[in-house]
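#onboarding

Welcome to the new folks! Below is a worked example of what a typical request in this channel looks like: someone posts a single protein sequence, and someone else replies with the predicted structure as tokens. Don't worry about understanding the tokens yet, we'll cover that in week two.

Example request:
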Amino acid sequence: MFFVTGCILISILAVFLIARRLAPQSELMNAFKGKHSFRNTMIGLAALAGAAFILNAFVTEGEEWREAAIIQVEDAQGEVHLFQGVEGEAAIAFEETPKAGREYRTSLLIWGNHEDVDLEFSKKGEDTQGVQMEVSEDFTTFNADAYSVPITLNFKEDGMWKITVNKNGDEAGKIVLMVE
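Example response:
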């Protein structure tokens, strides 16, 4: 939202600058009566656009802990299943909201290479590195691009949790979910 606002302000600024260059006697330019009103208006628009872009940077920085979207993925038989995560990276099957202290049986869906997969769990607000879990079961083909494996997760506490999926030591995706 802030990015779009900044772009709109920059566009308005550009319209004024082009109008001053191409039509200095137009109605638009005659609205600036004071000696420095045009300059002050342009500086104000540029400052507001800059502030909007800075706010956008702060907002997107906090998105690391935004809950992952629920996506629809079609399997090889044409049935649509709900997953929570990012399509093309990693996701877990979404049947219900996980509960703290209870086993949560689900399946992990990974696109592309599915060898040497491990999961790292971290809770929002905790500085320490979370629990690691290696996925040792065999993956099955889910569709032409993705592979699936059943997993059982156990979250100690409620709150916002991030599951980082690593393939061959490289990060393949992150799944952020709320645990009740």
